[in-house]
Amino acid sequence: MRRLEIIVASKPDFNELVDLHSVELYAYLWRMLADEQDAEDCLQDVYLRAYRAYEKLPSGGNYRAWLYKIATNSANTARKKRARNAQLVDINQLGTPRMVEREAETRQVLALLAAQVNALPRRQKAAIILRKYQELTYAEIGTALVCSQEAARANVYQGLKTLRAKLSQLSKIEVIL
Amino acid sequence: MNDQSSEDKDLEHWPSNHDTEDTVLVYLDLLYAKGPTAELSNQVHENLKKFLAQSTVFYDLVEDTPVGPIMTAVDGKGVIAVEFGRDLRDFGKRLSEDFNAWALRSSSKTAQVRGQLLEYFSGERTTFELPISLGHVTDFQREVLMATSKVRPGEVSTYGEIARRIGKSRAARAVGQALARNPMPIVIPCHRVLGGDGALHGYSGKGGLKTKMALLVHEGASGSFKESL
Questions:
Q1: Are B162 and B199 within one domain?
Q2: Burial code of A24-57, b = ≥16 C-beta within 10 A, e = fewer?
Q3: Domains and their CATH numbers in chain A
């Protein structure tokens, strides 16, 4: 009984979730959307959605993974909205802002790769970013993407496999040219 | 199967010494490893805090009044809602949705409206001196509600009269509809507005006409409305 009480009492104040996770969630949305403003709008949406659901959320869960789940859904909605607003997406808009610091050649490859990353099934793209850059465990990615741990893992390597294939195609073309 | 497990191993370790074969990982790092700058992250965090503070409404219950329990809600600017009833969970949920905001229970933030309601019912107060926040109503509804606020305690008006006061003399029916959706009954005294024939006509609050009449009697209003019940 005592143990149960401790778990119940451990549900953090919602504001703590803001202080603990908003920076990493912003980085995640920034990576997913490659746009500062879209990512910020999305982050605000994430916390409003999270707040509404928080009361009914059982205590003692993995709040971080749960927030990533909401962020993934919110990013997906934002992406769809953006796709509606702009039917033709400029390939140069898909990269990240720091690409301009690179040499022209590297920039070109990065823009092409960014386009390929964006062309991946959205779960594969999310899984790669979550695993490698947000440093979530596969179990957490499973929560975030609403799939099993195994499927989370499969999404990462399927995505990487596709990217490797695309990149080697690209370099073959370059050699021919 | 073997192929898969060797890939898994790669993934767990995310090779730090990239060989030339796996340039994908090198390029992915160039694209994604550096996240947003610390400066941008801090700014976004501060903006989020401000956004959430602005998007917060507070609510609480006034347990014992002569017309039953009443729920109140305020935002940063003033009173946003008064409702008959005691289902705070439902009230909070609706506030959160209607105002696209966090709804938090707070007795301190709602103390002013609570205090004035209790004074009103005990007879110490006849008019409310409260900031009200009508950000979420239409212009027409706002005009109707403001005109209704000017009906003094102990007096009554009619839907037609309110319509005339806002310069839309033919809009009596629309006035009735606007008052039926009064977001803060009692504080904005829609109970003082009657049908053209002096009939109580309707009251959206819990207890309906009974509550409307109780409020009018409490305020000492006189007239034909009593017989019309």
A1: yes
A2: bbbbbbbbbbbbbebbbbbbbbbbbbbbbebeee
A3: 14-88 (1.10.1740.10), 120-177 (1.10.10.10)
Mutate to test the interface with A, among B2, B25, B32 (most CBs of A within 10 A): B32
Question: For chains A and B, what is the number of CB pairs under 8 angstroms?
Answer: 89
Are B35 and A132 a contacting pair at CB < 8 A? no
Mean pLDDT across chain A = 83
Q: Which residues contact A26 (CB under 8 A, 6 or more apart)?
A: A39, A40, A43, B36, B41, B44, B45
Query: What is the band of B214 on the pLDDT scale with cuts at 50, 70, 90?
Result: confident
Which pTM value belongs to this model?
Answer: 0.64
Q: Give the pLDDT of residue B213.
A: 84
Residue B133 lies in a domain: no
**Are residues B147 and B193 part of one domain?**
yes
Q: Residue B195: which CATH number?
A: 1.10.10.10
**The pair of three-digit structure tokens given for residue B25, joined into one six-digit string:** 């990982």
Contact flag A102-B30 (C-beta cutoff 8 Å): yes
Chain B hits for A161, CB-CB cut-off 8 Å, are 7
Question: Distance (Å) from the C-alpha of residue A79 to the closest C-alpha of chain B?
Answer: 18
To the nearest whole Å, the CA of A2 is away from the closest chain B CA by 28
Q: Does B97 touch chain A (CB under 8 A)?
A: yes
Are residues B143 and B114 located together in one domain of the fold?
no
Amino acid present at B212: K
Residue A65 distance to chain B (closest CA, Å): 19
Tens of pLDDT along B6-26? 444 445 555 444 444 578 888
Answer whether B46 touches A (CB < 8 Å): no
Distance CA A18, CA A64 (A): 11
Q: Look at residues B44, B137, B49, B72 and name the one whose alpha carbon lies nearest to residue B99.
A: B137
Same domain membership, residue B62 and residue B28: no
Domain that holds residue B178: 139-228
Indicate which residue of B113, B178, B190, B213 is catalytic: B190
Count the domains in chain B: 3
Report the pLDDT value the prediction gives residue B206, as an integer from 0 to 100: 62
Say if residue B78 is in the same domain as residue B107. yes
Q: What is the CATH number of the domain that holds B80?
A: 3.30.160.70
Structure tokens at A82: 């953006």
